[in-house]
Amino acid sequence: MTDRMRGRVLVARLDDAGDVLLAGPAVRAVRTLAREVVFLAGPRGRAAAELLPGVDRVVTWHAPWIDHTPPPVTEERVADLVGRVRGVDEAVILTSFHQSALPLALLLRLAGVGRIAAISNDYPGSLLDVRHRVDEDVDVPEAERMLAVARAAGFELPDGDDGGLAVRRPLPDIGAFAGGGSYVVVHPGTSAPARTWPAERHRQTVRELTEDGHRVVVTGTERDLTAYVAGGDAADLGGRTTLAELAAVIEGAGVLVAGNTGPAHLAAAVGTPVVSLFAPVVAAARWAPYGVPAVLLGDQDAPCRGTRARLCPVPGHPCLSQVTSEQVVKAVRELTQ
């Protein structure tokens, strides 16, 4: 194995699209020495993995210890993963602070993977060759946390790479979706109710942005929600775009208005400023839009802080319900001037 050829390297991030997008800098570091980069993604992360520069092939597997709707652990499921990753020479397992890399490391050992790197504050025994330790009480941006694992494994970003988020080019032509001229994208959906700003506030914001002179495009997968938020004031692209098309729509926007959700990280990857409606159930220092101008709205000291709750544990959802449409419109103005 030469310095330039580290063989076939698997990079794993098994949760959602935003998590996968934040793994981009780590992937590009691995790419500098790997003959082939295989990305192991969960079902909700596959489309994002396919957008990452440096990925040669994507393998999808539904991890029982990661997913919010975990499948059962069966011999057949384990054998399926082991069979599909045979031939991998080494692996870089990427996780959040509340996840363990060790179950996947065990399965990769069964597949014959010879060298495995990951963060583990728990004793890994012979499951890891590179055990990277971090102080979990220190909030580090997720992209930097994952890049640190790649570096610990001996992979560095290429010269001239600033470590920002990125997507493959070229992106699709989205003229049929967004038309010409400037616009603001409003993305009302999130993967967890605890991170969601009320739909009526989104609708009111769309109306006020239009009155403020902006053309507005509403995006998302929940068609009833996007139709309601768009009303008669905005273009409704609900359910009409692939992730790559959504990236192109967001790239063409002056600003994205969104919660802590995948499209906020997609905006960071295409360089679009974000008005971030951020619930503090996870730390903004870790998960806020990375490397782009952003205005963070929401009470970051609310009682739900750090709970990682998917359903709001505080009556009235005060961390976000107190954010007004006027504040969002003002933030959009600040980011577009």
If you had to describe this structure to a student in words, what would you say it looks like?
Helices cover 33% and strands 15% of the residues. It has 337 residues and is α/β, with parallel strands linked by helices. The longest helix is centred in the middle third of the chain and has 13 residues, at 199-211. It is globular, with a radius of gyration of 20 Å.
Q: Over the alpha carbons, how many angstroms does the gyration radius reach?
A: 20 Å
Report helical residue fraction. Answer: 25-40%
What is the number of strand segments? 12
Give the helices and strands as they follow along the chain.
EHHEHEHEHEEHHEHEHEHEHEHEHH
The number of helices is: 14
Tell me the distance between the termini.
52 Å
User: pLDDT under 50 segments (min length 5)?
Assistant: none
Oligomer: single chain
Mean pLDDT, as a whole number? Answer: 95
Q: Main beta sheet, described? A: 6 strands, parallel
Strand order of the largest sheet: 3-2-1-4-5-6
Shape: globular
* Structural class determined from secondary elements: alpha/beta
Proportion of residues in extended strands: 5-15%
From the structure above, extract its key features.
337 residues; alpha/beta; 6-stranded parallel beta sheet; 14 helices; globular
Summarize the structure.
The chain is of the alpha/beta class. It has helices at 17-22, 24-31, 46-50, 75-84, 102-110, 142-152, 175-178, 199-211, 223-230, 243-251, 262-270, 284-287, 318-321, 325-336, and strands spanning 8-13, 36-41, 57-60, 90-93, 115-119, 130-132, 184-187, 216-218, 235-236, 255-259, 274-277, 294-297.
